[in-house]
Design brief:
Number of domains: 2
Low-confidence stretches: 1-26, 501-506
CATH superfamily of the largest domain: Metal-dependent hydrolases
CATH topology of the largest domain: TIM Barrel
Largest sheet: 6 strands, mixed
CATH class of the largest domain: Alpha Beta
Number of helices: 16
CATH architecture of the largest domain: Alpha-Beta Barrel
Length: 626
């Protein structure tokens, strides 16, 4: 028995395609897009009157009408008079939960989370892939490498939940790379260039042996530009500070590690030509981040400012999007004249123009660059389209190449094989737009339909959107260390904690004894282990380290007391039962001391420790290695 339906995709701004469904009551029918002009992402000529057949979440056939057999009972999207492209990919996302619907609304179906999110990133990735909440495909780096400084003396001040670790030498770099890969990383990345090139080369080597891409923030001072390429970078965030190595006065800029494009102002044409040849030969793609690093200088900045206001006019988006994040964005896009002197403005404008020229010249010479939003410096989702506009309007890159820079080139350089183009066997992530993006890249904003994972996306915003499931606090940014309010705890420690005396000549002493005072001090938490526990785990014993624990201290989980053992004044153990671990999300733990308190001005409970509980289906996570 067959039924025919007429559906209108829920769109914000733009007419919907008529979607004719001829669904067999038994099983899922194929989805067919027919009649539109196909731009498949490979850079060849557009294909008019095309047919794309999708089965499940994969593309199974692509061709011209008459050359592709349409399965009986298919759901058919009539794309006549429209253009079909691969779904867009954000090459640099600092992911937070509130971006999910907006990414899809603007046709961004995948994002590279180079601002790494540790176990939480893996939990988000897999929750989206299992349909728990809407969002783009998230590709994760788990933890970024940070250099140990020129003498290897930088301390690794890592705390559980943070996004990076210091590697002081080649062995530590390889160990970090292997841990990340075992923890589910889709690629590997670095936060700086503050180590010798061989440290980054070892890290990249482990990634490449595993078939993974490498993205590096090559800002020096020891490793930048060409050294980063030679170390194995596939993608160079902020163009890898190449401007420092292309200017006429190397001595003037040798210590420049700032993100703004000032150093490009003195760009030497001969050095630019050599650098372009070098990048082409090594197949390395700069990621310019014009919208973030060069903010205020693209030629249509007034349009950007207006767009960034209008994007939050939808009350359903505004219902859950944190207000402080909106105002942070608006502050990021203010006029550069407001915070630069005339002389600074002139240098930076000169630098931006040469930075844009370099990217345009690189692509014209056969090289590649990738498009990124570097959110939260840009509006969610829209930031990718704004960056594409700068590629066209200021770098003068042809629209077809810009489309590749936001699709195929990103996938290729991150070594992710099943997205980025519309071809048989690829995941079915597709945008359908009302005007030809190969004529004007701004036409990518005229979105009619977004298909992700073989399914037509509801592009509207919903006030009940639940992407916050792994947030420490739904009203704030999702990602932060597992123990909150560290500044508060440090102040409490200084004001109330009686450190044990030195023993002999060494600063060593037994742990503080368990006290049972009449007036209790306010407790504080410094660390918790484990910090990630998979959904459905049995009784789990947590070890909490901190200050001011007393005989009758009690640990609360989500405001419920749990069995507590006070080991000493700085250590507590708490048992959490399976019923509390049965729901994925975050467990919020705090310690409470018996009243009355000696110092009530510090509050009646400790700061919080947040334990991540990924869904039971989560495919890979760190198992608390970090």
């Amino acid at each position: 028995m067959r039924k025919t339906f007429l559906l209108a995709s829920l769109l914000a701004g733009g007419a919907a395609l008529a979607l004719t469904l001829q669904a067999d009551a038994q099983g899922q029918p194929a989805l067919v897009i027919q009649g539109g002009t196909l731009i498949d992402g490979n850079g060849g000529a557009s294909v008019p009157n095309s047919v794309i057949v999708i089965q499940g979440n994969r593309i199974v056939q692509v061709g011209r009408a008459g050359q592709v057999q349409i399965p009986v009972g298919s759901q058919v999207i009539n794309a006549g008079g429209k253009w079909i492209t691969p779904g867009l990919i954000d090459a640099k996302s600092n992911w937070n939960w509130q971006y999910g619907e907006a990414y899809l609304h603007w046709g961004i179906t995948a994002a590279m989370v180079t601002g790494t999110r540790n176990d939480q990133g893996i939990a988000d990735r897999d929750a989206i892939n299992h349909g728990i909440f809407e969002g783009p495909r998230l590709y994760q780096g788990v933890l970024n490498l940070q250099g140990g400084g020129p003498k290897g003396e930088r301390r690794d001040n890592y705390v559980p939940g943070a996004g990076g670790r210091v590697a002081h030498n080649v062995d530590e770099a390889r160990a970090l790379a292997k841990s990340n890969l075992e923890g589910g990383a889709d690629f590997l990345g670095s936060n700086d260039g503050d180590a010798p090139p061989e440290v980054f080369a070892a890290y990249a080597d482990e990634a490449h042996k595993a078939g993974k891409g490498v993205v590096m923030r090559c800002v020096g001072p020891e490793t930048r530009g060409k050294e980063c390429v030679l170390a194995g970078a596939d993608v160079m965030i902020h163009t890898g500070e190449l401007g420092v190595q292309m200017n006429k006065d190397p001595e003037k800029w040798k210590d420049w590690i700032g993100l703004p494009p000032d150093s490009y102002c003195d760009m030497d044409p001969a050095k630019e030509k050599d650098m372009i040849a070098f990048l082409v030969a090594h197949n390395t793609a700069p990621e310019p981040d014009f919208m973030a690093a060069d903010r205020g200088f693209p030629s249509n900045w007034k349009r950007v400012q207006q767009e960034d206001r209008e994007v939050f006019n939808d009350p359903n988006l505004r219902a859950y999007y944190p207000e402080f994040a909106i105002h942070d964005l608006w502050q990021n896009v203010e006029d550069a004249h407001n915070y630069l002197t005339p002389a600074q403005y002139e240098v930076r404008m000169c630098g931006f123009r040469n930075h844009a020229k370099f990217i345009g010249d690189l692509i014209a010479a056969g090289g590649q660059a990738v498009v990124a939003s570097d959110i939260p410096q840009t509006a969610p989702g829209l930031g990718v389209l704004q960056e594409m506009a700068v590629f066209q309007e200021d770098a003068h890159v042809p629209p077809m190449k810009i489309l590749q820079a936001a699709t195929k080139w990103v996938a290729d350089h991150f070594r992710i094989r099943d997205i980025g183009t519309i071809e048989s066997g690829k995941l079915a992530d597709i945008d359908i737009v009302d005007a030809d993006p190969a004529a004007d890249i701004l036409n990518m904003r005229k979105i009619d339909t977004v298909i992700k994972d073989g399914r037509v996306v509801d592009r509207s915003y919903h006030p009940w959107y639940r992407g916050w499931i792994f947030a420490n606090d739904p009203q704030h940014l999702e990602f932060s260390p597992n123990v909150t309010a560290r500044g508060w705890e440090a102040g409490l420690k200084a004001a109330t904690f009686n450190k044990p005396p030195f023993v002999g000549l060494l600063p060593m002493a037994p742990p503080p004894a368990i006290r049972d005072p009449f007036n209790s001090p306010t407790p504080g938490i410094e660390a918790i282990a484990p910090h990630t526990v998979i959904q459905g785990s049995p009784d789990t014993l947590f070890d909490i380290r901190g200050i001011n624990f007393v005989k009758r201290s009690v640990v609360y989980v989500n405001d419920h007391p749990v069995p507590t053992e006070v080991v000493n004044g700085t250590e507590i153990k708490a048992k959490v039962s399976p019923n509390l671990l049965g729901q994925a999300g975050k467990l919020h733990l705090d310690v409470r001391n018996p009243l009355p308190l000696t110092n009530p001005e510090w509050g009646d409970k400790s700061n919080e420790a947040n334990v991540l509980v990924p869904f039971a289906f989560t495919t890979a996570w760190s198992h608390n290695k970090y």
